[in-house]
Input
Amino acid sequence: MACDVLVLGAGMVGTCTALQLARRGHSVALVDRRPPGRETSYGNAGIIQREAVEPYAFPREWASVFDVAFKRGIDVNYHFSALPAVLPRLARYWHASAPARYAPIAQAYSRLIEHCLTEHQALMDESGAGDLVRKEGYHFAFRTPAAMEQAVARAADLARRYGVRHALLDSDALARAEPGLRRPMAGALHWLDPWSVNDPGALVARYARRFAELGGQVVEADASGLRPVGGGWQVQTAAGPLAARHAVVALGPWADPLIAPLGYRLPLFVKRGYHRHYRGGPGLRLPLLDAERGLVLAPMAQGMRITTGAEFARIGAPATPVQLDKAEAAARELLDLPQPVEPEPWMGNRPCTVDMKPVIGPAPQHPGLWFNFGHAHQGFTLGPVSGRLLAEMIEGSPPVVDPAPYSAARF
Ligand SMILES: Cc1cc2nc3c(=O)[nH]c(=O)nc-3n(C[C@H](O)[C@H](O)[C@H](O)COP(=O)(O)OP(=O)(O)OC[C@H]3O[C@@H](n4cnc5c(N)ncnc54)[C@H](O)[C@@H]3O)c2cc1C
Output
């Protein structure tokens, strides 16, 4: 079996890469050990974050660093056993978050985010996925006026520098917009540009179905046996070896174990996150970030999804959903939540890099090998544009944005 390109990993990033290549007429196999969209890209908050022009920085104020270190908030947790491996990476993450270093990172990031809606729109149109999406933005809600005031100043700054739009809702306006809320809030920022998807895994599955309609092969196989053969790349499948001139590593949080044996030591780590659904009750119209507690409430086809912030742990370490327990308690202050749908919470891994930018482009030492991973908090948002950029680089056609800031060679 042979094709032009093997795309390894069928999350949002890999599926969009495969679809973008197939739309351009290439023969592509999309390889995953599970059906498309069943890992991180299934369990996120489903927000296509057009407002997230700047990536999630490590806190720089000492008070916030101590909050993290002493696990004072619900938004961050860590395993002591993971610290020896993760601390050097967190130190680099903290270093990259200093204002002077962060500014060009944010500039580069915003150039990708700029295209997220148009690229999703094009794929949604082709895939018949319009029924999964709400184009009404989402709310950053605040419990205290002081927190709101700070966020309003930042939103005004982002509006000025990047043109992202928001509206301010006072306490009454938020209560009118979300009548299900059971306690008065100080107010909310309504980000107007983002979209939200009521079943993120289903959107990936629709993109994969479109890919198959265009002649792409969706192959269930383990990518870990990837090896160079005869000027190309090959993986083993149940039906025999599958070979191509190019291979794209789009394994999200699992990229490291595949590329490390090839000699790539990239500073990657994961931020784990949890979710659980709650069915019934008055619910919400739009997703809502409880900004001072650090949890998201997102209305989904499966029920109200509560998602948590970051947990620093080894990727395969047992689940410790302490943040979800606290997030559930905080959410119950805001909404009448019936009992959870699932007996156990879902857990996923945000694939992160120390400088907050994804890795998109050629593997520096292996012709025909390409990287597309490390999209951290916004991989669901960025899949289509990142996939387009990589497809253009493989083809050698003019890229939608300058790929230099995302090169693996920067580390
Ligand atoms: C709680 C939470 C909330 C989030 N909310 C948002 C949000 O609202 N908006 C947003 O933009 N982003 C959000 N994110 C981030 C987003 O979900 C991720 O950035 C994105 O899903 C990463 O996509 P991916 O395709 O790189 O990885 P994945 O979706 O994890 O895909 C990787 C694929 O590789 C496959 N794979 C791994 N190893 C192998 C192997 N050996 N062989 C074959 N296949 C393999 C896996 O099965 C998987 O399908 C959130 C994340 C979390 C955890």
Remarks:
- The chain is about 35% helix and 25% strand.
- The chain has a mean pLDDT of 96.
- Residues 1-56+99-128+193-267+355-411 form a domain with the FAD/NAD(P)-binding domain fold (CATH 3.50.50.60).
- The longest strand covers residues 268-278.
